[in-house]
Design brief:
3-stranded antiparallel beta sheet; two-stranded antiparallel ribbon; 8 helices
């Protein structure tokens, strides 16, 4: 996804995920000790239980960094393997979190524009090898990243000054109705899905959202044959 100026807002990064074939394991105890040493965030008990199950396939850790992958490969443990996967990256971090939304570990949109895109079935078409040559062009939003940055900073300052529990702001183009900025605080870092989901679920019921009162038509901009939408019909 890109903003109105072509600045990158969200993209895919190829990563590797670690799996095991327990039936091929020679020494489970030794394998677990080496894995936990190489990947300290792995649970010894959980990993040991998975490898003792003697099933054909189990995930051990999703979305490893290149360094982590190389470290595991150097262990030389039989029965381990890697599968390529996609991780969603948000260069703007929390500044566009409520607009873009967040994806789960399988790269499926859970909220925001991400959910709207997946709701159109584009990912399924892509995985099936279908769609025209322009079917998967970047989704361009009416949001201006520079304006979004300023609004986010000013609202953050205001919250700190007045000790507010929440803040929100929207900037529209009065002539066209385009949404140039939409910020809702407190926000979250979409690059950390666990944190994002925790913060979203912790919000009190009934709290108004900055997008309330703006319908799909208000947030839709057409330029020739190109659509630019900055808020999903599902809401966030």
């Amino acid at each position: 996804m890109i903003d109105r100026n072509g600045t990158l807002l969200a993209t895919d990064v190829r990563m590797a995920s670690l799996y095991a074939e327990p039936r091929r394991m020679v020494d489970v105890d030794e394998a677990v000790e080496k894995l936990v040493s190489a990947l300290p965030d792995l649970s010894f008990e959980e990993t040991h239980s998975k490898l003792q199950a003697k099933s054909g396939f189990v995930w051990l850790k999703r979305q490893l960094t290149p360094t982590q992958q190389q470290t595991v490969m150097s262990l030389g443990i039989p029965g381990l393997g890697f599968r390529p996967e996609i991780k969603r990256l948000y260069p703007a971090g929390d500044q566009t979190s409520h607009v873009l939304g967040v994806t789960n570990i399988d790269n499926r949109g859970l909220s925001g524009i991400e959910k709207w895109i997946d709701g159109r079935g584009l990912i399924d078409l892509q995985q099936a090898g279908l769609g025209g040559k322009n079917a998967f062009a970047p989704v361009q939003l009416s949001i201006d990243g520079r304006v979004q940055n300023v609004v986010h900073d000013e609202l953050t300052k205001a919250m700190n000054t007045y000790q507010a529990t929440a803040a929100g702001g929207v900037i529209l183009n009065a002539k066209t109705g385009e949404v140039l900025s939409m910020v809702s605080l407190p926000d979250y870092d979409p690059n950390n899905p666990a944190e994002a989901l925790q913060k979203r679920s912790a919000q009190p019921d009934g709290r108004g959202h900055v997008g309330d009162g703006l319908d799909d038509q208000d947030l839709h901009d057409r330029h020739g044959d190109r659509d630019r939408r900055c808020w999903p019909e599902y809401g966030v």
